[in-house]
């Protein structure tokens, strides 16, 4: 009856990155440039989401690519190059975050006890095309501000899983979390974002409302 | 099916990771529950909006700096 296909155990053709990594190992630096170009945007985005700081994100991206280059011998083909790379970038990002928040523990496990958003409260439907009510700049502000309000562990799970399109298993492997932990964070991240975006995107009624918005 | 049970399966429904039988049960709940219908549609929209908008543009020159750093590292022995 079940239609969910098992992912593991099937023989898959080698990922194209494997050939690039082999070329780099053979001394071809241009192959590494290809890998950088392929993943620089995603890595920068992840670093921004975790550190919330542009300078830190730039440093993280540079350090992560350099570190990956130096440690390439340690990369084993049993995981994707990208997930291996992201793991380095996540660790670098957390280190930066710790430096900025001296004296405070920073890990992907922090702040996960929050119940906010676990039960939807704002159940007003949204405009059919809520983005149309805002300029690109305004929309970017809203989306950044909204996701910044989430705990780092939620932001990064949402980004890897929903924006980058990694599978739940890859996200778990990348972050060193269990699959149930990723699932739990993803659900709460999605619901919290939805709840917060509702403030901006819900259908505007012509009648008076108690909210008193401008 | 209660709303709490529906919510527990929300991610699997969005990610299309449910059996046909469970999907039918979830659909049945949706037909009679506006709240869950709204939660599902707006959560889907949330994901779609974040997926389709790049929030952080890479600073110009970063790629060049990175390339230079890698080349410098390589000269030390790669």
Question: What would your notes on this structure say?
Answer:
The complex is a heterodimer of chains A (214) and B (78). Helices cover 59% and strands 0% of the residues of chain A. With 214 residues, chain A is mostly helical. Chain A has 2 domains: 16-100, RNA polymerase sigma factor, region 2, helix turn helix motif (Rna Polymerase Sigma Factor, Chain: A, Orthogonal Bundle), CATH 1.10.1740; 130-201, Orthogonal Bundle (Arc Repressor Mutant, subunit A). In chain A, helix 3 (54-70) crosses helix 4 (81-100), helix 4 crosses helix 7 (168-175) and helix 6 (152-163) packs across helix 8 (179-201). With 78 residues, chain B is mostly helical. Chain B has one domain (3-75). Chain B has helices at residues 3-8, 10-14, 20-31, 34-52, 62-75. The longest helix of chain B is centred in the middle third of the chain and has 19 residues, at 34-52. The A-B interface holds A 1-4, 27, 29, 32-33, 36-37, 40-41, 44-45, 48-49, 54, 57-58, 61-62, 65-66, 69-70, 119-120, 123-126, 130-131, 139-140, 143-144, 147, 158, 162-163, 183, 186-187, 190-191, 193-194, 197-198, 201 and B 7, 10-11, 14, 17, 19-21, 34-35, 38-39, 41-43, 45-47, 49-51, 53-56, 58-59, 62-63, 65-67, 69-71, 73-74, 78.
Strand runs of chain A, count = 0
What is the structural class of chain A?
mainly alpha
Q: Can you tell me the CATH class of the largest domain in chain A? A: Mainly Alpha
Q: CATH homologous superfamily name of the largest domain in chain A?
A: RNA polymerase sigma factor, region 2, helix turn helix motif
Question: Which pair has the most extensive contact?
Answer: A-B, 51 and 38 residues
Fraction in beta strands of chain A: under 5%
Q: Overall 3D geometry of chain B? A: elongated
Number-wise, the strands of chain B total: 0
Radius of gyration of chain A: 20 Å
Number of domains of chain B: 1
Residue windows where pLDDT falls under 50 for at least 5 positions of chain A:
207-214
Name the assembly state.
heterodimer
Radius of gyration of chain B: 23 Å
| Share of residues in strands of chain B | under 5%
Distance between the termini of chain B: 60 Å
**Biggest β-sheet of chain B, characterized?**
none
Q: Please, how many helices of chain B?
A: 5
Low-confidence stretches of chain B: none
């Amino acid at each position: 009856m079940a239609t969910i296909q098992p992912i593991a155990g099937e023989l898959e053709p080698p990922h194209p990155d494997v050939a690039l990594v082999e070329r780099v190992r053979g001394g071809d630096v241009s192959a590494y440039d290809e890998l950088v170009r392929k993943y620089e945007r995603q890595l920068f985005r992840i670093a921004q989401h975790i550190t919330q700081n542009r300078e830190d994100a730039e440093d993280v991206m540079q350090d992560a690519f350099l570190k990956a280059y130096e440690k390439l011998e340690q990369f084993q083909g049993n995981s994707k190059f990208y997930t291996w790379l992201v793991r380095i970038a996540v660790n670098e990002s957390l280190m930066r975050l710790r430096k900025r928040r001296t004296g405070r523990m920073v890990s992907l496990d922090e702040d996960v006890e929050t119940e906010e958003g676990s039960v939807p409260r704002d159940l007003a439907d949204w405009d059919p095309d809520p983005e149309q009510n805002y300029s690109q700049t305004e929309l970017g502000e809203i989306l950044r501000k909204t996701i910044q309000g989430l705990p780092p562990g939620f932001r990064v799970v949402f980004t890897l899983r929903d924006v980058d399109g990694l599978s739940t298993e890859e996200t778990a492997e990348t972050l060193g979390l269990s699959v149930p932990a990723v699932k739990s964070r993803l659900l709460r991240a999605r619901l919290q974002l939805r709840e917060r975006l509702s403030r901006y995107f819900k259908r505007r009624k012509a009648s008076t409302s108690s909210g008193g918005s401008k | 099916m209660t709303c709490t049970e529906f919510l527990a399966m929300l991610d699997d429904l969005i990610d299309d990771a449910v059996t046909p039988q469970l999907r039918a049960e979830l659909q049945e709940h949706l037909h009679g529950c506006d709240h869950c219908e709204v939660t599902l549609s707006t959560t889907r929209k949330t994901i779609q909006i974040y997926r389709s908008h790049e929030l952080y543009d890479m600073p110009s020159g970063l790629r060049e700096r990175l390339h230079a750093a890698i080349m410098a590292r390589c000269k030390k022995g790669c």
